[in-house]
Amino acid sequence: MLPTAATGSHLFLPMSEPLHTLAGACRHGEEIRKSRFLALAAPVTSAEQALAFLREAGDPTATHNCWAYRIGQEYRFNDDGEPGGTAGRSILQAIEGQGMDQVMVVVTRWYGGIKLGAGGLMRAYGGTAAECLRRAERVPIVAMTRLGVHCEFAELALLKARLKELQAEIEDEQFGASGVDLNLRLPDDRVAEARLLISDVSRGRSEAHRLD
């Protein structure tokens, strides 16, 4: 059974600050006063993915497997037996401090016989997590929108080619008697251009509508 965890939401960066996620899984280890700490981090888009990563990354033979994740305004963290507030919250603060989102971090500790105290634990867990994220390859998070549009057969090839220039991805394509229904996914900041493009190509006969 997975451990219970603190959960909630709070703003952690100004809205103007660009957020990043990880390009892939990463790891970083440190030895601190004879205890070994290993941070494993991965990009995630759901709580289910985050907890699945915990099952893979956690070492059942270790002293503690502490963790935290943030996905948008949702977050959870867990101290896994360490004194309350010393591990999971410190890992979460490392995620926030690095300007990251959609990230899960597990920091495993193998106890070396020397107690670190509350402050030492906070620095060890938070520092190991922060250094793991700092060294990792990251990618910017682009806010996306889903649109639906109906077009006539004669317009399909041109519309698809022009939409590709706006970084639009076609998620679904359904052919019917009167034309084609497309489900699109594209960056938020290209939606206005896409609407004008669709109206232009269809000569005003087609109009995009949001699917979200």
What does this structure look like?
The chain is an alpha+beta fold and 212 residues long. It folds into two domains: 6-140, 2-Layer Sandwich (Ribosomal Protein S5, domain 2), CATH 3.30.230.30; 144-210, 2-Layer Sandwich (Alpha-Beta Plaits), CATH 3.30.70. The chain is 30% helix and 33% strand. It has helices at 47-57, 88-97, 117-135, 153-165, 191-201; strands at 6-8, 20-22, 26-32, 35-43, 64-71, 74-78, 103-110, 138-140, 144-151, 169-175, 180-187, 209-210. The strands form three sheets. Strands 1-6-5-7-4-3 form a six-stranded antiparallel beta sheet, with helices on both faces. Strand 5 and strand 6 (74-78) form a beta hairpin. Helix 4 runs antiparallel to helix 5 (191-201). The longest helix has 19 residues, at 117-135. The model is unreliable at 8-15 (pLDDT under 50).
Task: Write out key terms for the chains shown.
single chain; alpha+beta; Ribosomal Protein S5, domain 2; Alpha-Beta Plaits; 2 domains; six-stranded antiparallel sheet; elongated
